[in-house]
Amino acid sequence: MGSGWEFYLTLLLVYLGVDIIACLGLNIQLGLAGIMDFAFIIFQAVGAYVYAIFTLGPANGPGQGAGGQSYLWGTSLPFPLPYILATVAGVILAFFCAAVVLPRLRGDYEAMAFLVISLIATGIATNQVGIFNGANGLYGIPQPLSGVLNLPTLSYDWFYVGLTAVICVLAWLVTRRITTSPMGRLLRAVRENEQAARALGKDATRARMFAFLVGGGLAGLSGAVLVAFVTAWAPASWGYAESFVYITAIVVGGFGNDIGILIGVLLVPILFGELVRFLPAYGRSTWIGAAQLMVYGLLTLLFLWFRPQGLIPERRQRYAGGGEPSLRAGGTPSAPSAPSAPSAGRIRARLGPVGRLR
Amino acid sequence: MNPFIQYVGFGIVTAAILAIAAVGFTLQYAVTNVLNLAYGAIMSIGALAAYAANSAGASIWLALVAGAASSAVVSVVLSRAVFEPFRRRGLQMFGMVIVTIALDLFISNGLLILAGSNPFSYNAQAGGTYHFVHMIFTGEQLAVIGIALVAMVGVRVVLQWTRLGRAMRATAADENLARVCGINTQLVKDAAWLLSGALCGVAGVVLGLSVSGWTVSTGDGLLITVVAAAIVGGIGQPYGAILGALLLGVATSLVGGFFNSSYTDITAFTILILFLIFRPTGLFSGVVKRRDVVV
Question: Which is nearest to A96 in space by CA: A83, A113, A84?
Fold first, then answer.
């Protein structure tokens, strides 16, 4: 038994961590705020690129950077800084995308605008070679603390798994703090019925914007964690379909709760993604990637039909006082005693997602 | 030879393909209210069916009919088997768009596995080149433009002068009102899927005719440009879609010719995003009301 399986295991664990951080971010956008972010992967991509250009050596001009690559800046910053900058980059890019899309578009058009933004980003990164080395992408990206620790490769990989776990926990604490805060409550309200939230004087657009920026920041962080381990990053790593992988994970696991996200990540990119990889690769080379995307598309359709709430449904929110009737779309009505209710304790009407009585 | 005029000529060929697809897309979205991102994959199915017929010995015209028919059938089957059931049940918080994009990934990657990524080309005898107001067209390109013109006139006739066309326009304008007036909207929707699917298949075949080699991903690659043409023209406006197709076809061709050919797609995407931001209802406001798509 060689140590090959151990390298594979560390790789899988880092992937798991990266996917958890990313899905926590996407869940703030999609699960909590209900934004169909089909551009999610570009925030991960920008985080990875920013990590790369702030750790690679100086770029003295086109083709003059480390390994003859072309990129911007190139400042070998020490350990935690590139991660922070990657997160900031995710937030900034998310801000520009959100400022363009969120105040104006809704529904199908919102989703499509994000899809188009993702395609434009891929086109620019591929064709503008000077920014991130174009279609070839960046490689030889330094790993954090590898010079300081001086560990053999496998030990360093395990060290990095630990680092990923720590960042995962940090990301989880941040999202936990948001979902349980008044802001989390407002976001759920906006998701369920934006008009009602607005009527109560809440700034729905600002709340959605906030959720989008947090999601973008976590995506940027996940990109940095990923690229520091795999040490290469190119436009082929972040096609628009990659956003769909994370969306599938959330659909499968169940939006709106952490356990669902964890299970979604374990099942979709890790289990199904890797299982497909082990299928006999007969015939064509493009087979595996195509089969993975086929599986994800099918999983999404099946889950949306048979179990739209995901494997672990969102828990009903309970608030102190408990006297208010809960007007949640699709939820069971629970109204202890609204004074004007016809028969005590029973309200038959429910608010649907568009605020119509069903 | 003036390169500007020649690029405009190339743009018109692209616009002809786009127009066929965009008119189908705009009709589909307006009548059925499904933003169908699997449209590109269905285009590829039509192109593949036509290729199968063509390589079995059928002439390119017969292959065109085969492509149109198979895309039409696939469209109706998908609407009955997937889109309509989802619409009836309602999606908890995700829009219909996630269903169509999931379906698109499923179909297009399935096609990739089945047919591989090698390029195909049709066996069509269209020799010679033709000059027309300083523009040079090949026989294939002229055929593409001709097919587009015939398709446009056909759509015009159906929509304007038949009972079905009137029922379609009524359903697009207000489905409930149409049903109250005694229109069988389910039947009208099926007809819309059939007609738009046929246009989609024709677009897939002419797309294959216009390039030297096409793959099963070519249709998907054109999808967003088709959507762009439909949205620029205003959803539910066939003439708008034709104008949008002309605008996008010529603009992308000019950018590709004078600037850099790898920027053709980005040009189309940028035009789309600008329209989504500043005028989401398109040049001519069609059936998509502002309240449906904007805050």
Answer: A113
Percent of chain A with pLDDT over 70: 83
Which residue, among A117, A294, A350, A354, would best test binding to B if mutated, counting the most B CBs under 10 Å from its CB? A294
Q: How far is B104 from chain A (nearest CA, A)?
A: 8
Identity of the residue in B37, B113, B294 whose CB atom sits nearest the CB atom of A104:
B294
Is B125 domain-assigned? Answer: no
The answer to whether position B244 is within a domain reads yes
Chain B's closest residue to A305, CA to CA, is B86
Query: Number of structural domains, chain B?
Result: 1
User: Does B249 reside within a domain?
Assistant: yes
- The CATH number that applies at residue B107 is 1.10.3470
CB burial of A78-96 (b: ≥16 within 10 Å; e: otherwise) equals eeeebbbbbbbbbbbbbee
DSSP string, A279-335: S---S-TTHHHHHHHHHHHHHHHHHHHH-TT-SSPPPPP--TT--SPP--TTSPP--
Taking the domains of chain A in order of start, what are their residue ranges?
Answer: 14-238
Separation between Cα atoms, residue A241 and residue A286, nearest integer Å: 15
CB contacts of B104 in chain A (<8 Å) are 297
- Euclidean distance between CA atoms B155 and A102, whole angstroms: 36
pLDDT of B262 > 70? The answer is: yes
Render pLDDT for A282-330 as a digit per residue (tens, 0 to 9): 555 567 788 888 989 999 999 989 988 888 888 776 655 544 444 444 4
pLDDT digits (tens, 9 = 90+) for A258-271: 888 888 988 888 88
3-state helix, strand, coil in chain B (%, to 5): 75, 5, 20
Q: Is the ipTM of this complex over 0.85?
A: yes
Any chain A CB within 8 A of the CB of B81? no
Residues A253 and A310 sit within 8 Å (Cβ to Cβ): yes
Separation between Cα atoms, residue A58 and residue B240, nearest integer Å = 51
Best mutation target, B276, B288, B289, B290, to test chain A (most A CBs within 10 A): B276
In a domain, B127, yes or no: no
